[in-house]
Write a structure and sequence with these properties.
heterotetramer; A: Butyryl-Coa Dehydrogenase, subunit A, domain 1; Butyryl-CoA Dehydrogenase, subunit A, domain 2; Butyryl-CoA Dehydrogenase, subunit A, domain 3; 3 domains; 7-stranded mixed sheet; B: alpha+beta; Butyryl-Coa Dehydrogenase, subunit A, domain 1; 4-stranded mixed sheet; 4-stranded antiparallel sheet; 9 strands
């Protein structure tokens, strides 16, 4: 009897929704998605300073507000609704989470306050080949030199990699996989912005050539940390997907209420009414999936990997399908550039691939449920 | 499925568990999980069990003590259902009286009606049958034609009802009748309480596709009931019937959910034992996901109910979701059983998964078909316009 | 431009449909499904003698009419529509086909005329474990004795095994898998009728204990024959499924045209209308699948195994889904014993498992398309 | 996809192949498969190619020789389309004139209209745009509001049309107009031929979600056309427009089908190259099955058309089936591409599968949405009753 938001959590949701209604309206999204940076530093500052969102789930000792994953999930859900253009997922779900999970107190003290305060934009550079979110996919090499560790290799699809001040990197050390911190301005680091299908979220490819890096924790302990970061980020991304999916349902239902064809609002036709009902039904199932993940994260349960893969598989599919159905309900107009339906559809598609496709997570679940051996799954 | 037991409810939970440990033994323990909402299996044994439950005052927990209840909180009722279902105690026979008619009478009945009927329900002495649907009023209840007219001190009832669960065992029926033939559709209906065992009432089992007879049809031919045995005012029948259908049944979600989880585990176990189920792995994962999500959704709804909040949209979508997903789960089970699925025991004795598979076809029909559910979700939750009333039929 | 029935084929269809309308009406089906034999010998005789259906695709030299698979498919489609209770599939698609495909001219001359004339009821006993329709599943032992070959083992789910006069058996010889013919009255053969979920089609379990058998062809050549028999029977069964599926669509649409709720025929509601449209759409796709199989069989093409698995997977799924949807359209009445909807639904379910589930055939196709290695698939 | 070439058609097939071998060289060979029904890519090159086709008399094959056709049989036209699509010659620009308006004019036009317009279509000198849909008349064409009234010797047209393919390149428009404002819905419409390049006609590209401009919206402000440029009689516009939409387009099935097959092979090839696509194997198989079944269904329909039979129900269901299955195929492709799917080239240059994926969303909308298709199948094929006309909106 615990899957229930507290009044405080409901208030947080209302506050964030209000804020984003003002700061991430459709015209703002369209303006920012056309910029290279892809976000508005002033709004980012307000999110950090006024609302404390960047440090929401960071313990107070590192400058955060000390809330938990459920609160964080609410924020992601609202950002997904509003298609917010900002390096929040990369900073909060990836970089901050990596530091929170590592065993390196010094690094935490050095780096977390900047992230929590929104002064540092962070990200994680992990992926090298499409779809390879597993440990074996990490081939970038970390070598110890007299001057410290240096990295050589290439990372692709790095979220907000073009603007990140702090890049957490998974790299192969002689002992295993290590977690490293690289300064966004480090020598030997080449960043190339890559145009994205979902223009509301930016990516860069990064090349490391003898790039100095700080080892975080033990040089064989990186994958333990990264695995948990991937699970956590998958759940938070799932919450974002749920927010977007619900907005798509609302857009479709709203249009169906007013659009008249054959002398009736199209929503009075069962073909459209029932399609909308199915969309809502799937959105509610996805919401249960995301909340399940959040509650397991909050309880720090052993089921986090299970819940994370469930949430990512389920919410990815729901968002893509619902955003596609929303286009269908809108008819021709929903297929145009000027209508926002495609923005949600493309965000859904990009989220689907990020941190592992639904098929990838189903494979992980099949292995965990004893249905077959996993590919690239340890433990 | 894990529900949270708050500290203040722990003594109650302990009491429930103790009672179950003591009583769920012998023949009852041998018939764990027997029966279902429409499944008359092991009737006599379940009747004996239900008398024990009554003696222990475990029926109608939330009802006022004056009618035999305990005045328990919803939270306690949920704990009871959870522990009860987890122990796989026999499925209760008196659902119609305990979970549907009783709560409706508590809302709309006169003190005399409540005093007369409610204690007998909780004593497991009188059983009830619901007379709502008719052959020509299935999804469209407003068009019921069974009529009742006052004849001296009695109502006289003529007509036909169908899909009455456990009708042949009912002592009393609650019957939606047209009492004002001039009023249109929703208006002019009344909900009457009718004694089942009288010459004017003929109850015949309808065999379903499993070969079972859980459902009945009922013929009323100048059947009689006392003039005061109407629930609510005459003419309020639609309102009362809708309330009966909408009675908060959060507690019923729990045995259903635990049943789904057991079935899903059974199906996964089948798959683990079958070489060559690899190609089905994603469908198996999806079935498992669906059952897990039903759990979370159930807990979300129960959480809201216990907190006294208005349940969210998930409460409206969950029946559609569950019935569709349950069909998929059992379709997968039949595919895993392969040729084994095609044979039965003697006398058309079906295996558990065969029964569940066939019964699952009814889950998208009874209690509001999937089509009706989508109308409700579309109109009540999403605010979409209703179908226009027919003017002329299009060319 | 060849996927077109000739006028002669269309006439055959009309003749068979007419015949079955009289001889396999619902009340007849219900009467026969309650009998142990499960068919009406008089009607069987008429099918053979008047219509020549048992010998339809048997060459004239063995007493048949010399037609091909397309004609045979038409007959199966019509039988599926009418839920015919008769040992036709076992006699024609299994036993006759095994003899036609074997390399044993003497056996063909001895055994085919009886089958073609409908005097011999035949079947195939192959399956031993559920779902194991592959060569490795054959464990029944064939041994050569002084008196000839004898069989030891058990076969399950033998269609019409309780009444078959001639049982073709796949059994393991020292050299491989051999095909054998066993007399229905042979010593050492125990036949046990098994009650079936789909009561319109009967099964038996067979036990062989030193049962004398006639080797058909070479003692290592059996699987080559059986594989082709399985493919052929799968296509013909697919045609039967298509016939049943179309009948289910018609029943549903017919009911939707006349059943009134909310003051309108339910078929005027898009919820029902569109469900029926989707049923028809799937039925037409299934029809294409079955016809594809028939045409490939008629052309004796290399693609027969591909087409057979496609047809079986696709038509199985379509029939089950459509028969289930037909119940949905009928509402409560469709769930009762007295309504014929469940007869189709159960036939669909039984057909689905027979000769390999859709999943089994998808696995075969995945292997043939190079998507992954098959289980139990040679070549 | 294999069509059967009858012996009597073999010389024709050889001629087609020879011509393609000789002409599909150089820049054309470098642009194999370029373009699509709504895709304006490589316009200039395709225009040069279309002039070559015209010179070879390969456009409007079945049209009478007097208008530039060959009076070929449907069977020959299908052979041409098959060999053309198999060779991946550029997608033709003149579809609107050649496949939609032209055949309609052949049915309903006056001798003068045919002589004036048809040869220019086959010469690839004049291109056409269809003005049917309006912002408030999408699925519901009968409610078009663009009006035309006679003003001296001219029609004067005011209103707005939308979803006109390649509108900015059109020389002539065929426009469904309301010419009798007092007649209701279907009645009072006329199909007018309107010169596109005049002050009263403004054509603006509408950018679609790919960032392309294949579609246009058109504004008519006192636009003029000659009084005799009406197809069929004034007031017959609905009948003529429906005929235009129902024009037998069996030949168009062929390039579509070959396109699906190429895509499916591409997707399977992607899957073969990806470790870990095992869990997707059944979905991949289903996608392959669907494309194969579309082939068979296409061949069934073509077979009936060539034989002069009424096409079966599969001709009615195939658009719904193909559009839904095509979306699934491309959803699978995007899942296989995984993260690669998320990036584009510079200037939002989309990869082939990205383009196809996004365009596939329109396939269930344009040319009769899936919802409209299901209505048509339900009503015209299955004989289900139409929606009743609205009387009052339900409460």
């Amino acid at each position: 009897m615990d899957f229930l938001f507290t009044d405080e959590q409901l208030e947080l949701r209302a506050t964030v929704r209000d804020f984003l209604a003002g700061k991430s309206a459709e015209e703002t999204v369209r303006r920012l998605m056309a910029t290279e940076a892809g976000y508005d530093p002033r709004v980012w500052r307000q999110m950090s300073d006024q609302l404390g969102l960047t440090g929401l789930a960071v313990p107070e000792e590192y400058g955060g507000a000390g809330f938990g994953y459920v609160e964080l999930g609410i924020v992601f859900e609202e950002m997904g609704r509003a298609l917010l253009c900002a390096p929040y997922l990369s900073t909060v779900a990836l970089a901050t989470e990596a530091l929170l999970r590592c065993a390196d107190e010094a690094a935490r003290r050095d780096l977390l306050p900047g992230l929590a305060a929104g002064r540092t934009i962070g990200t994680l550079a992990l992926l090298e080949k499409p779809g390879r979110w597993d440990e074996a996919g990490v081939q970038t090499r970390a070598s110890r030199t007299a001057a410290g560790w240096v990295l050589d290799g290439a990372k692709r699809h790095v979220q907000d990699g073009h603007i990140a001040d702090l890049i957490m990197v998974g790299a192969r050390t002689p002992a295993g996989v290590g977690l490293f911190a690289v300064d966004g301005a480090a020598p030997g680091l080449t960043r190339t912005s890559v145009p994205t299908l979902d223009q509301t979220r930016k990516q860069a490819n990064l090349e490391f050539a003898g790039t100095p890096a700080r080892l975080i924790g033990d040089d064989a302990d990186g994958w333990r940390v990264l695995r948990r970061v991937l699970d956590t980020a998958a759940v938070l991304l799932a919450a974002e997907q749920v927010g977007g999916a619900f907005r798509a349902v609302e857009m479709a239902a709203g249009y169906a209420r007013v659009r008249v064809q054959f002398g009736r609002p199209i929503g009075s036709f069962q073909a459209i009414k029932h399609l909308c009902a199915d969309m809502l039904t799937e959105a509610e199932a996805a919401r249960s999936a995301a909340y399940y993940g959040l509650w397991e994260l909050a309880a720090d349960s052993d089921d986090v990997p299970l819940a994370a893969s469930l949430a990512k598989a389920c919410c990815s599919q729901a968002y893509s399908r619902i955003a596609g159905d929303a286009i269908q309900v809108h008819g021709g107009i929903g297929f145009t550039w000027e209508h926002p339906a495609h923005l949600y559809f493309k965000r859904a598609k990009a989220c689907e691939a990020m941190l592992g496709t639904p098929g990838y997570h189903r494979d992980l679940l099949a292995a965990r449920l004893g249905l077959r051996s996993a590919r690239g799954m340890e433990a | 499925m894990d529900i949270e037991i708050r500290p203040e409810d722990q003594p109650f939970a302990d009491e429930v568990q103790r009672w179950l440990d003591e009583h769920l033994v012998g023949e009852f323990a041998e018939h764990r999980g027997v029966g279902g909402p429409d499944d008359p299996a092991a009737w006599e044994l379940r009747l004996r069990w239900e008398k024990k439950l009554s003696a222990g005052r475990w029926l109608g927990l939330t009802w006022p003590p004056e009618y035999g209840g305990r005045g328990a909180t919803l939270s306690q009722a949920i704990i009871f259902e959870y522990l009860y279902a987890r122990a796989q105690a026999p499925y209760r026979l008196g659902v119609q009286g305990q979970d549907l008619f009783g709560p409706t009478l508590l809302m709309f009945g006169t003190p005399g009606q409540k005093a007369r009927f409610l204690p007998k329900i909780l004593a497991a002495e009188e059983f009830w049958g619901q007379g709502f649907s008719e052959p020509d009023a299935g999804s469209d209840l407003a068009s019921v034609r069974t009529r009742a007219r006052l004849d001296g001190d009695d109502w006289m009832i003529d007509g036909q009802k169908i899909w009455m669960t456990f009708g042949t065992s009912a002592d009393w029926l609650y019957v939606l009748c047209r009492t004002d033939p001039r009023a249109a559709r929703h208006r002019g209906l009344s909900l009457l309480i009718v004694p089942a065992r009288q010459p004017g009432v003929e109850i015949r089992p309808v065999t379903n596709m499993l070969g079972d007879g859980g459902f009945c049809e009922v013929f009323f031919t100048a059947a009689r009931t006392r003039a005061d045995l109407v629930v609510g005012a005459p003419g309020d029948g639609w309102k009362v019937a809708m309330a009966a259908l909408g009675v908060e049944r959060g507690t019923l979600l729990i045995p259903q959910q635990l049943g789904f989880e057991r079935e899903a585990e059974h199906v996964l176990e089948l798959a683990r034992g079958r070489a060559g189920a690899t190609g089905l792995s994603h469908r198996l994962v999806d079935a498992w996901i669906a059952v897990r999500l039903m759990r979370v959704t159930t807990l979300r709804t129960i959480g809201e109910l216990v907190a006294g909040r208005e349940p969210g949209a998930q409460a409206a979508t969950s029946k559609l979701y569950a019935s569709v997903q349950h069909q998929r789960l059992l379709e997968l089970a039949t595919e895993l059983l392969a040729d084994d699925m095609t044979v039965t025991g003697g006398g058309y004795a079906l295996k558990a998964l065969q029964r569940a598979f066939l019964l699952s076809r009814a889950e998208t029909i009874y209690g509001g078909s999937s089509q009706i559910q989508r109308n409700i979700i579309g109109e009540r939750v999403l605010g979409l316009p209703r179908e226009p009333r027919p003017g002329s039929t299009g060319g």
